[in-house]
Structure formats: structure tokens, C-alpha cells
Amino acid sequence: MFKDNIIAELKEKIKKNPKDIEPLRNLANYYVGCNEYILAFDVYEKIIELDKNDYQALINLGSICFYRKMYDKALIYYNAASLIEPNNYATYYNLGNVYAEIENFELAYKNYQKALELNSTKSEIYSALGYLYSDIENWAQAGYYYKKALESDSTNSENYINIANVASCLSNYDEAIEYYKKAIQINDKDEKPYLSIANSYCAKNDYSKAQEYFKKAIDINPNYYAAWVCRAIAKIDENDNNSAIEYLKHAIEIDIEKVNAYILLANILVEEKRFSEALDIYKTAKKIAPDDAKILMFMANTYVLIQNYSQAAKYYRKAIKLSNDNEIKLIYIEMANSYIKNKMKGKDG
Question: What is the average per-residue pLDDT within 325-340?
Fold first, then answer.
């Protein structure tokens, strides 16, 4: 009711004076605050009809298009904004984000650098450049820009996490743990760095410390799917399949639409020769992700183990059709040879 009243009041003001931009802007901004982006978009367009040089309306239109993945339209609005305020760093930062999203490294870099020329104090620009270089796995440059972001803002925990992520990618796990812990000092309610520390300890084969941090992540967010899955993987590495199965089943309860836990669980069951159970779980995963060739290959492998070569061939062919993976083709050829030999012996389940 409160929301309806505010919207009604703003619309009444607009009706009384349809050429007054401020009530339109207030209504559009209110829609954004309520996550009503399509309604906000329509109102911002009305502002542009009244004043084609309204910089903030153009930026907001570009941002709505960006978040709706309408990148071509976002570029139109942001470029129009850049003509109105060519010395505003935010325009080029936003343009950089669009080009980064459509994987145009050169133009993303050019616009981020332009944003830095206009304002070198904004840590988000350095972070964006770090993400840009992370995407192409240039860890030296990514680390350089993440550290520049940290110099600009040492109160943002994400800046520590980004540096830690680079260290982890370079297998510098002690350094990574150090930066993740600094992020926790700033925000100890964020579960992500706890999980990252746990994974770093797993990489160091220190499973006791890893489980300690898995638990801390889950204590903060009991429904943290990734933590339950990673915790299960650590238990697999420790040869504790019983705990791994328990954790994976819990992950599936948290999110029945994600396939990772199903696949890992089925793989464990195959290892334990519980083939029928494994196949049932693979089939469930296949319903969720019918185009995942990996699931089909695992199913085919399982059928080979129980010497049901006709079913194995069926799923290998489906996997090859989806992925055209040479590795799957080689496995299929090897299986076909085994099938011929076993067929001669009368074995085909």
C-alpha cells in the first residue's frame, strides 16, 4: 500500500506538469529501487524525449540494458552520454564493462584506461582491469591491478579476495590464505573467503585445517551449496567416501537443479560398485542437464563396467554427438573392440 501511494503521488505530479523532468526522474529512480527495471526504463525514455541531453537518464538507460544483457543498446546509451559529458570517468567505466562482457578486450581496456585518466582514485576501475586480465589468465597484470585497487581502497574485502585468488591460481597458497584472512578481518560474515581458505588448505593437503574452514563457511551459511560440494571433494581425496556421500546428498537437498553434486555422488557409487544406484543418479542429472556430454560419457562408462555394451555404445554415441570430443571417440572405439570380443563370447548384458 505504501509503495502504491508513492507511485500514485508521483504520477499525479507528472500528470499536472508532464514537462517537469524531476517527478519523472523520481518515479524512475523509485522503480529502480523496487527492482522494476522495465517500468523504470520506460520513464527514463520519457525524460530523454523531453531532454535528449539528460546525462543521468542516458547512463541509467545504459545500465538497465547492461543488466538485462542488451549490450548493443547499452553501448548506444553510454556512447550518447559520453558526447554530453566527455570528461566523466563513469561513462568510460561503464563502456569498459560492456566491452568486457562481450569479450572485446581491446575496447574494454581502452575505456578503462580512459576512466583512469579522468579519475585515478576509483578502486573499481583497477578491479575491473584486474578482472579483464584474469579472464585471459594474465595473472601478473591481474595481480598488479588488484593491488592498485587495494591501494585505492583498503577497506573493501573484495580487493583482498581478488589478490588472494590470483595467488591461488599461481599455486601460492600461503600468500592466498594470508589475503583471504585479511578479507575476513574486514567482513567476517562473508562465507566466500572461508571456503577459499578451505580449498587452499586442500591444495596443501592439509585436510584437517580445510575441514575447519569448510565448517566455518557452513556455519555462516548452512545452505552454501559450493561449500558442501567442496567439502565432499576433500573427503573423497581423504578416501572417506561415507562422509562425501553424506555431504553430497545434503548439497542436492539444498539445490536439486545443480548437477555437480549428482555427478560426484554417482561417481563415488560407481567406485563402490553400486552401479544400479549410480545409473539412477546419472539419469536424474541428465534430466537436469540433457546436453551435458560428460554425464552421458559417465553413464556409458558405467554400462561398460557391467558389460552392457549395447547401452554403453548408445550413450557414447550420444556424448560424441553433443561434444565431438576426441577423447570420447577413443573410449568409444576401445569399448567397441571390447564389445566385439565379448559378443563372440556371448556377453552383452
Answer: 64
Any domain includes 141: yes
Is pLDDT above 60 for 301? yes
Cα 55–chain centre separation: 31
Task: Using the predicted structure, report yes or no on whether residue 274 has a pLDDT greater than 90.
Answer: yes
- Whether the model clears a pTM of 0.85, i.e. scores above it, the answer is no
Question: Which 8-state DSSP code applies to residue 174?
Answer: H
Q: Measuring CA to CA, which residue among 302, 304, 299 is closest to residue 341? A: 304
Q: Which helix (H) or strand (E) holds 240?
A: none
Any domain includes 168: yes
Place of cell 567406485: 271
Q: Is 287 helix (H, G, I), strand (E, B) or coil?
A: helix
Q: Residue 17 has what DSSP assignment?
A: -
CA distance linking residue 288 with residue 283, whole number of Å: 9
Spatial CA neighbour of 202 closest among 211, 193, 194: 211
Confidence of residue 220 (pLDDT cuts 50, 70, 90): very high
pLDDT, one tens digit per residue, over 10-26 is 787 888 887 888 888 98
Rounded Cα gap, residues 242 and 323, in angstroms: 33
342: Cβ contacts below 8 Å, ≥ 6 apart: 307, 309, 348
Domain residues for 140? Answer: 122-190
Please determine, for residue 245, whether its predicted confidence score (pLDDT) is greater than 50.
yes
Q: Is 239 left (phi over 0), alpha (psi -120 to 50) or beta?
A: left
Kindly state whether residue 81 falls inside one of the protein's structural domains.
no
136: domain CATH number? 1.25.40.10
